[in-house]
Request: fold
Amino acid sequence: QVQLVESGGGLVQAGGSLRLSCAASGRTFSSYAMGWFRQAPGKERELVAAISSGYTTYYADSVKGRFTISRDNAKNTVYLQMNSLKPEDTAVYYCAADSIIYSSPYDYWGQGTQVTVSS
Reply:
């Protein structure tokens, strides 16, 4: 069982940056793939970025070059650094964990954190 708690969301102007954090419980964090998903109003949830236990990364085309996912296994935490934010990045961002980076759906989810980008 893994419990996930996101933080770091907020309101930012277009072009700005935010760093999301996701703290995980449990002693096996390093064995999990971690993903950041987002869901905007009226849209389906989408995988934004993911990182495997072996540090393989995945990024959606819409965020490549702007977002960076990283993990600190000593702190049981995964991060999403978001730069050059756009209004279309506005969504609730969810952290998730699974044994496989490309799993669908992921097994464990956080409660979400709101990111709002103003134009």
Q: What stands out?
A: The first strand starts at residue 4 and ends at 7.
